[in-house]
Amino acid sequence: MPGLDDVMAFATERLTDSMPPPEGAIEFAVASSSYTQEVWRIVRKLSGNEPSNPIKERRKLRLILLQETIAELSEAPVQAQLSLTDFWQGFDFPPDSPHLVQGRGNSMMPTDDDTEATCRRYIEAHEAWVEAKTAALRG
Questions:
Q1: Do you know which InterPro entries this protein is assigned to (predicted)?
Q2: 24 plus 1 within the same structural domain
């Protein structure tokens, strides 16, 4: 599955292939993948020009961004957990998320987040979630 950087590179390539460039393509090509909300705004704007299912496309992009987030996680358990929390916060903590946040519908203790074993379980849960959601989108 291509990453957001691949999609942005494709947008840049398309810019050089077409004159005038498609509306919004320049915005997308120069957007930073770290600004999730800005990227979403541009994608929503561009997707209005293409026949597609916006819910399905949003799920695809969420998967791509989560894969990139997982690949870039810190080795430090607390920092990794914070990165995952930041990611899901950008999506308003959807109900189908595999992410656990202390005090959000659970009885996690502060010490539960800071062990390597716990962090590994969180990451494995996210990876399994990505696989399941990818299979569902393909199915």
A1: UCP015278
A2: yes
Task: With CA atoms as reference, report the closest residue to 30 among 9, 58, 51, 61.
Answer: 9
Note if the pTM is more than 0.85.
no
Residues 63 and 127 both lie in one domain: yes
Per-residue pLDDT in tens (0 to 9) along the chain, 139 residues: 455 666 666 666 666 666 666 666 666 666 665 566 676 676 666 666 656 777 888 888 889 899 999 999 999 988 998 899 899 988 888 989 998 776 566 556 666 556 788 889 889 999 999 999 999 988 7
Asked if 69 and 124 sit in the same domain, the reply is yes
CB 112 within 8 A of CB 103: no
Give the structural domain span for 111: 53-139
Rounded CA-CA distance 121/66 in Å is 16
